[in-house]
Model the fold of this input.
Amino acid sequence: MKDLRRFLTRLKNLVTRRRDDERLEEEIEEHIALQTAENVKAGLPPAEARRQAMLKFGAVEAIKEEYRDQTGLPFVESLLYDTRYALRRLRKSPSFTVTVVLTLALGIGATTSIFTLFYDVLLKSLTVANPGELYRLGKEARCCYWGGYSQENEYSLVSYDLYKHFRDHTQGFAELAAFQASDPLFGVQRSGGTASAQSYPGEFVSGNYFAMFGISAYAGRLLTSTDDQSGAPPVAVMSYRLWQQYGSDPSIVGSVFHIDNTPFAIVGIAPPSFFGDTLRSDPPDLFLALNSERLMPQADAGDLNQADQYWLDLIGRIRPGAESAAIEAQMRVELKQWLLSHQSEMSANDRAKLSEQTLFLRPGGSGITSMRAEYEHWLQILMMVSAFVLLIVCANVANLMFVRGMQRRRETSLSVALGAHTSRLVRQALTESILLSLAGGMAGLIVAFAGTHLILLFAFPSARGVGGLPIHASPSMPVLLFAFCVSLVAAVAFGVAPSWMTTRVDPIEALRGVSRSTARTGALPRKMLVVFQAALSLVLLAASGLLTTAVHRLENQRFGFLQQQRTIVRIDPGLVDYQPNQFTILYDRIRASLSTIPGVAAAAICQYSPLSGNNWASSVWLDGRPAPGPDADKVENMVYWDRVTPTYFSAIGTQIIEGRGISEEDTATSQHVAVINEAFAKKYFNNENPIGQYFGRPELGSSRNYKIVGVVQDACYLDFDFDKPIVPFFFLAEAQHDVVAKTGADSNPGSHRLHDIILVARPGATVSAAEIRQAIISVDPRLPIESIGTLGEQVSNQFRQQRLIAKLSSFFGMLSLVLASIGLYGVTSYNVGQRTTEIGVCFALGATPAQVAVLVIRRALALVAVGLALGFPVALAAGKFLGSQLYGLDPYDPAATLLAILTLSFSTLVAAFIPALRASRISPSEALRAE
Amino acid sequence: MKRKADVPQGTLALMILKTLDVLGPLHGYGIARRIEQISRDVLAVNQGTLYPVLLKLEQEGSIVSEYGPSENNRRARFYRLTREGRKQLQAELRDWEQTAGIIGRFFELKAEDLS
Done:
């Protein structure tokens, strides 16, 4: 209380600049007068009396100083003075100030925005209650369907039957929920509305899904176990984002929506923070109960009741105190029991593999992480790059601060000579460093905000559905703070060190020697900083060169199809209630209708166009050879296939090498045919002629399903595995339906639901989206058109991440180059300033300006050469690492490395040239006269 | 040579408060003289050091100052104890006596007292 009162009085004095000097003067005068009077009374002569009085009073100046300190707040006062002084000094050298602030801003901002992304994608938990209690099935994310009674390596997907088995027997879980592993698009239409169906991603989830996550409804209610029973009225929960899309209309809750033409009542809205079980760029907008799956009209519905169709992921919340290891062990036993109970339905292969079937539980607080798997490598590379940049930034700031401090040595020595305290001088330097860092930190915050936004925009430009990426564009504060602190430490340490070093020296010596001496105190750390920067810059430049070349090569590789003049129109006939046998007629009419558009050269339809992100696979059984063994359903034995309409190959621009493509003569009743690619021919027929041979698919129970009528050029269809040669592939005719030998049923009706129309425009002609829509509406207005885009876009989207990484690392490389040049410039020009006298002597002794300039530049180049020598092996190692991450990257690309070295040397020359020029213009007489 | 004791920080403040308590309003010189008299010159303070302490006490609200005529009819600043100052003095006096009592008992300590 007392202290507070005192503090407030002093603060008031500080603010009002009140000085009690006069009052004290007056009191002292009075005091001495009284004492003198007393002394006189005691018999001393007046002069002596006054002298004695003053002696008794003590050191007047010291008391005055103490008094003054008591009046205000001396610490705050000198802080204010220091700040004002530092600001004035910074204003006087704007180029230094701007350089340091910009350097800090870029370093802090870039590191923070990259790490924000890294953190959000890789480290963050789902926004659910107590994510630490959640465990998921499976070590790796596996997509999206699996059949039979064995899974490779681990059981990570389950069927509905297996889910119920686990749910009912595993006591350690408080709740165990299942949900669809894939994220299909549903055609959604509000009942009574006039708008055509829109597609939105959604998924089937078990009734306890929301209860397991521990989240509650934003509006209405969420799904419960009663909704997930056979015969329960079909209900759905809508995402907050889709609800916003409908104008946040409160009457949505309780209204009926047609989802894939099936009426569902919307019972509630999920909370805004909930993005589903998986971190991905197109989170589900609709949640339907698992048991509703049997109501859906999809041609291939019925997954629910098949015990050996695995299409569900599992996440459970364990009971408090339960051990995940114990639960895992128990679930393994349960899996064995379940498999044994299904032994009668198993194939011989599955039975053979029964003993090796196992499963794993993993912490599930961050959900099933497909996006994580996809982006992990890239983010790690980016993280490393930005850590490098932060290091360079620190080195640069340190260097600049150090040079500045060294330039102040004379001033500092003078202050010491005049009696300034070391602490005060160090505090001055400290104030300046902190001010600079603060300004840099503020600017860094702005860069971080802008950078995070920009990177998100680049990385995820568009997503299906309402989207709404579950990543926030606000930079993560802990990282910002971290980057700020690191650079603050660098700036402060190197800002204060010169002042401190100078105060250690005897001021007279320092003053005498400061401008004449050639001894360069602190030259070594500065040189090391430049060497370090040059080395790091080389690594970054070389790496970004490698990445850019690799991405260029990827984009211009031989794809096996043509991109020019080709448009992909994505439709979903599965959302309209066609019978399987009506599809062929529909496709013929669409092709005919599109062909009437002026400028259209050809139109064909396929299940999945190249690099569209999906393809079906199966194993094959060649006629005349033994049936495939237990290894047939291993990934490396899988053959991918696609279903296409006539004229497909000419439309997509894939060459037919032998035989013919799928044509109009392949009808429902004619011989079932297949066209294979070169890889297929090479793997299964080697030197034989494949034309006219037969093959089948084991799951259809025949080796003579298809007659091979043609071989086409290898083309790149799969959007993953760029690092592997093109896999065997076959194409089937849309008009021909596969039949299971035993039952006579259509085995894959879903494969006739073709998604992609390929439209080829005549050279020079363009076809507008409106014309395409009109042509399709004229065939069937109910048919939803999901998207219209060029094939070129579809291809380049595949390399978006790679391009982003290459762009960002080029940016960082350039940044580091600029920073290193600045650092070098600072050191060189400081050295020139230091050696003015020496250079003057050289001139006086007859050196030419060119000789002097060469002297300066040679020193700078020598530093950078050391840096290059150190950086070279690191750059090689980095290239090797990148080569292991990105297909098509040559780790020993001499062009990229050479270019990096040349760029760095060139900017060294530029950075050293200006100080060299200055040195060559030094007039010898002035230099010798200068102190 | 007479040995001079250092004046511990805070003791001086206490002495000032007590002096003002007993003698009523005084100017700086008066306070210095009384302290000198009472301590019989043992505490030969640099008299000037009194003034920063007076300022501190004033800032804390223990004393207030106002102008008044001095003995030689000049304008002088007189310090007066406030009610708060009196309270502070009493509190510190109690503390002091307590501390002095404890220390005193220790100084009188003999071995047999603890047996």
Notes: The two ends of chain B are 43 Å apart (CA to CA).
